Amino acid sequence: MKATQLWFTEDQTPGYKVQWRLREVLHTEQTPFQELAIVDTYDFGKALLLDGIIQVTEKDHFIYNEMITHIPLSAHPNPRRVLIIGGGDGGALRECLKYETVERVDMVEIDEQVVANCEKYLPEIASEFRNPRARLIFEDGLKYIKTVQGEYDVVIVDSSDPVGPAVQLFERPFYEDVARALKDDGLMVCQSESPFFNIDVLRKVVTALRDLFPVVRPYLAVIPTYPSGLWSFTLASKKVDPLAVPRERLKARDTQYYNPDMFYGAFVLPEMVKRAIE
Amino acid sequence: MKATQLWFTEDQTPGYKVQWRLREVLHTEQTPFQELAIVDTYDFGKALLLDGIIQVTEKDHFIYNEMITHIPLSAHPNPRRVLIIGGGDGGALRECLKYETVERVDMVEIDEQVVANCEKYLPEIASEFRNPRARLIFEDGLKYIKTVQGEYDVVIVDSSDPVGPAVQLFERPFYEDVARALKDDGLMVCQSESPFFNIDVLRKVVTALRDLFPVVRPYLAVIPTYPSGLWSFTLASKKVDPLAVPRERLKARDTQYYNPDMFYGAFVLPEMVKRAIE
User: Fold this and answer.
1) Can B185 be counted among the known catalytic residues?
2) Distance between CA atoms of B195 and A162, rounded to whole angstroms?
3) Which of A41, B144, B149, B236 is the most buried (most CB within 10 A)?
4) Strand, helix or coil at B270?
5) Which residues on chain A are in Cβ contact (under 8 Å) with B229?
């Protein structure tokens, strides 16, 4: 589309919105779980939207997907079995498979249509669904996690925002189930929203996890297409403290954002974030 | 204004724009140098715009102003004389005066109307123009810097984007003048734009400074109202390497973003930024 200007708008707060100019809306559908769209933006490449919110773009997906994966997988001394809850775009899965110790990644995605459409429209991100070390399970992560015990080294909770299908993934009963699904030296990570716009979400997640895990460490990355750019993840661990991981154990991993220095740098919190979760 | 929706739009790239809902446009004027506006936004408080670009908002100004000030002033072992070029909102000046060693801050701002309007509309940020340790000079920083030699411990180049009056502040001849204005153990810092949208600016600044200073260290902060959120500064030093500053010399300084851990954390660069400036 050239003559007609087509813009996608995301209301990030009631008084603050972001707009992307589109070449084309490639696909829309109402799945059993959410409204799904694939759009082609001028400046960020193709993007997946769920319920009108940008989830992933070709231009900056690597930041989120590397940071939700390489921090926990580099923190764990020997990650062999990994569970991803959500992660339907396939980016976290792709990063997990860069670890030669990883024998199998189970990915539990509630919405099969997310996987199907990412494979079709975002093949560079969704590149590893057919990898023999990957096992896709189309099921509600909340239900699946109750069926496993002491099975995983690392659990990655790669969810959308705490509205719609992902609400309970931000609540304590779910984290109890994750703790049970982990081995005795296991660790989990979840995305915990923008500390700039939604510090309450981060505070709630950290508080709930501190009741269940001896080591809880929030960390940050800058993701331009997410509200405010400042994005948080929270790592919770039964044994290993990521800040005690020796530098010489960390490797370069064919990444564009993550690197061994960032492994430590990401845990440095701005003063207002540090104070808010004390 | 309630019934009428009033929105301010900033085109951050040709296909990506950000909009803030406004309560009111408080002031507009054409100064001899630029178009100046003060607006009252719903979600970021009052804001200063120059030539249609958001410079500073009440909600997140502290991030930029702390990071352009506390990193260089904490890196220098004994900052006594500081020069700010630009900085008309007064935020960097306010932060400089938190250092008890600082005897005088000279602030050279080309546009007196920026200072006058910030003092009127953003008094919490522009709070120290009348401090006895502050000296305001309304002059072109490019001209002023040629008149001084070996005078400053720290020079802070707090400029707007490299369009309009600030273009030459991103070029080598100016940096040569800054080097001359610094004492033998002095250091400078400048804002060097978004590495996500404008990596060429950062690359050019770093390259020019590496020709003139033995130590050049870019660092980052997350500033939600600036394009992409990811913002760079570049520190260039004649002697001190900030990464060699001992932890015990760093103090807490009544800040909301900066803290002693952030002093080191800010220098950790994402892999794509690191590679781009190699």
Assistant:
1) no
2) 30
3) B236
4) coil
5) 222-224, 228-230
Which positions in chain B touch A256 (Cβ < 8 Å)? Answer: 270-272
- In chain A, what are the domains? 6-57 (2.30.140.10), 61-276 (3.40.50.150)
Across the interface, do A18 and B20 touch by the CB < 8 Å criterion?
no
**Is the separation of the CB atoms in A206 and A234 below 8 Å?**
yes
Question: Residue A163 — pLDDT band, cuts 50, 70, 90?
Answer: confident
CA angle A55–A59–A60, rounded 5-degree value: 60
Say if the Cβ atoms of B17 and A16 lie within 8 Å. Answer: no
> What ipTM did this prediction achieve?
0.95
Q: Which of A16, A271, A272 sits opposite B20 (nearest CB)?
A: A16
Q: Nearest CA to A188 among A251, A238, A250?
A: A238
Residues above pLDDT 90, as percent of chain B: 95
Question: Which pLDDT tens digit goes with each residue over B63-82?
Answer: 999 999 999 999 999 999 99
| A242 CB burial (10 A radius; 0-12, 13-18, 19+) | buried
